[in-house]
Specification:
Oligomer: single chain
Order of helices and strands: EEEEEEEE
Helix content: under 10%
Structural class: mainly beta
Strand content: over 45%
Number of strands: 8
Radius of gyration: 12 Å
Number of helices: 0
Largest sheet: 8 strands, antiparallel
Shape: globular
Length: 93
């Protein structure tokens, strides 16, 4: 895994682990809530551990280890941490 920090935001930190063409595979550690923001690309997320409530455009989704979801480019979304964990995010940085 790379030591390059891609982003730091309230509640999380992410590091690039691989590039897939224009997309990046990012290992994200979540230890708090992330306020609403818009997706910069179509993002694919896989939950490795932890439990989260994800609000995408007002639709509430509960996610835990093994769950996955797509977040469409431009969609407003926020994460409320129920239990600290890790995600794999595939998207543009």
């Amino acid at each position: 895994m790379s030591d390059q920090i891609v982003f730091k935001a309230p509640g999380l930190v992410g590091r690039i682990v691989r590039s897939l063409g224009e997309m990046e595979v990012i290992d994200v550690t979540v230890d708090g809530d992330m306020p609403a923001h818009a997706a910069e690309s179509d993002d694919f997320v896989v939950v490795l551990s932890g439990r989260f409530e994800v609000d995408v455009e007002g639709a509430i989704n509960f996610c835990a280890a093994g769950d996955y979801m797509m977040v469409a480019k431009g969609s407003s979304h926020a994460i409320r941490m129920l239990e600290p964990g890790r995600l794999i995010l595939i998207g543009k940085v």
